[in-house]
Amino acid sequence: MDANLPAAIGFLAEVRQDSARPPEPVFAARAFRARWHERTADRSLHTVLLHFGAPDEAYAREAGRTLVFAGELYNRDELLGLLPGRVLPGSDAALVIALFDVYGIHAFRLLNGRFAALLADRERAVAATDHAGSMPLYVSVAPGQVLAATEAKALRGAAPRGRSFPQGRPFPQGRPVRRRPGICQVPAGSVLDIQVSTGLCVAHRTWTPPAARRILPEDEAVDTVRRALERAVRSRTGPGTPLVVLSGGIDSSAVAALAAHRSAGPIDTVSMGTDQADEFAQARVVARHIGSVHQEITVPTGDLLRGLPHAVWAAECTDPDVIEYLLPLTALYLRLGDTRNDGDPGGDGDTGGDRGTARRILTGYGADIPLGGMHRESRLAQLDTAVCHDMDTFDGLNEMTPTLSAMAGHWSTHPYWDRDVLDVLVSLEAGLKRRHGRDKWVLRAALSDALPHEVVVRPKLGVHEGSGTTSSFSRLLTDAGIPKGFVRQAKRLVVEEIYDQVVVEGRHPDEVALDAVVELISERAAHHPHPIPR
Ligand code: AMP
Ligand code: MG
Q: H-type helices in 244-319, by residue range?
């Protein structure tokens, strides 16, 4: 297996009292597939695992329990320190099951990672997400049967069982999935304790966004942010050369600079743009400064928009704003190919095909949420209100899903949503986020010695703006006759229609006729004489 990648990036697991086999699931994530079956006196466990060549590392067995673990941990060293006198577990799965033996379900409160897990423990099934739910996890529960999967569409074969529970949900915190009664999403930072025979579920929180605010002197705040981010980048860069998706904004440039600091050779960076807009000049300044092997990928706008079904298929999200952020990155990931450099900055990259093309990708995604970066708000009360709102509402949007890059066969991870970085960033008092007339001041100050001044002070530009995605999507709709005042609502309807086709009905995104979807929505708009923009 490539030591640079997690053992598994997704699964479907079924725990039953009898021993039926789950149907062959559909996943958007692309990796090797392994089927695995285990029968004990109390139950059977069937798993379909998405892996990179060493599926066994994604399983662990101890004391009659079996754990299926997709993703990775970022605080292994800390966790190993909790198990003195034991043979130290090699894989993340083995580490988690050893901690479970000591801490029970509270083991999941110790983990800083990007993962989804299912544990079969005699007559119990335990399903867990990481603190941010950054790898989505869906369950379908009925007396005698528990199904869990990292993509909702993988549960398509499961019979609707929601009616046996109040409001169709086996537990009150479960997030219903659009038009899939009986399936619900496990909330971020949660562990579900399920009694298989009855289907009784109890949800426990393993993380909540901090509500209190820390008051720190400037230099201490800056130092705390720098150290937390350095550690998050370090724990996310494996033995191979990391690839950073770089816009040239402060968030991704910070990640690239810190990854470059700790890398023996030059790292890889890549920027995307379209025929409408790009940030190539800004990204080039950073690439030159850190000495990365840099690549620019231009996506024609027509191709970008034709990626809408793929973005929805991967993210399983109906929020049009989120899909607009994710669309340019979807297009970028699908065009990455083999970008591995051979240590020669300025060279044109090595395209040797025999080393495997799966990459470990770091992004600058998500820094704006705890820092209130996209609100362009200078009043501190409003800024903190916005941060609270965004931290309360991110769950279920699947913005951080690894499936976006996994659809193209790559593994991505977001240092700003490291559990410890997030705790630090959320909890700083608003005056450290907005200061001296700058947004995200504390982050900018923390990187001031590592990046050119023009990058440190560069104003926020969202990827949907920098690539022209928002305006191109709007134009697609107005060109089809949709009135300007209805565009926002129409975007939502387009995304929902695509979602219904690829997630609910199980169609492959290549089979979705985007023009027909737009036409359908435009006809609906025509019959809606006074559209009320949302
Ligand atoms: P933003 O919306 O600008 O915060 O973008 C989120 C993340 O997506 C950034 O931190 C980058 O890692 C990545 N990104 C944004 N724009 C680009 C781009 N033009 N090319 C490559 N990666 C990008
Ligand atoms: Mg940006």
A: 250-262, 280-290, 301-306, 308-315
Distance 257 CA to ligand 1 centre (A): 15
Q: Is 393 exposed, middle or buried (0-12, 13-18, 19+ CB in 10 A)?
A: exposed
Helix, strand, coil percent values for the chain (each to nearest 5): 40, 20, 40
Q: Which residue lies with its CA nearest to atom 23 of ligand 1?
A: 247
Find how far residue 151's CA is from the centre of its chain.
Answer: 12
201 beta partners? 194
> What tokens were used for 145?
């049967």
CA-to-CA distance for 401 and 70, rounded, in angstroms?
Answer: 13
Distances (CA, A) of 9 to 136, 145, 292: 11, 23, 27
List, for residues 470-520, the tens digit of each pLDDT value.
999 999 999 999 999 999 999 999 999 999 999 999 999 999 999 999 999
Which of 275, 461, 463 maximizes ligand 1 atoms within 8 Å of its Cβ, making it the mutation to test the pocket? Answer: 463
Residue 89 phi/psi, 5-degree rounding, is -65, 140
Q: Hey, whose CA ends up nearest to atom 6 of ligand 1?
A: 365
CB count within 10 Å of CB 32 equals 13
Ligand 1 atom with the smallest distance to the CA of 467 is 19
Alpha helices in 349-501 (DSSP H): 368-371, 380-393, 403-406, 419-427, 430-433, 441-446, 453-456, 463-466, 469-479, 487-499
Kindly give the interhelix angle for 218-236 and 250-262, rounded to the nearest 10 degrees: 60
Q: What is the dihedral of CA 390, 210, 235, 7, to 10 degrees?
A: -70
Q: Tell me the CA distances in angstroms from 509 to 210, 397, 400, 514, one per residue in order.
A: 39, 19, 20, 10
CB 473 within 8 A of CB 419: no
Cα-Cα end-to-end distance for the chain: 48
- Radius of gyration (Cα) for the chain, nearest Å? 23
Q: What is the pLDDT of residue 166?
A: 66
φ and ψ at 181, to 5 degrees? -60, 140
Residues 6+ apart with CB under 8 A from 23: 157
Q: pLDDT tens for residues 262-272?
A: 999 999 999 99
β-bridge mates for residue 112, sequence order: none
The token pair at 394 is 């991110």
Encoded amino acid at 239, one letter: P
> What is the arrangement of strands in the sheet containing 65-73, beginning at the earlier edge strand?
59-62, 65-73, 113-121, 124-129, 190-195, 200-205
Q: Is there an atom of ligand 1 within 6 Å of 370 CB?
A: no
Query: Which ligand is closest to the CA of 253, given by its number?
Result: 1
pTM, full prediction: 0.95
Q: Which segments in the chain show pLDDT lower than 50? A: 344-355, 533-534
| 233 alpha carbon, distance to own chain's centre | 16
Rounded distance between C-alpha atoms, residue 133 and residue 113, angstroms: 10
Helix/strand/coil for 177: coil
Distance CA 250, CA 310 (A): 28
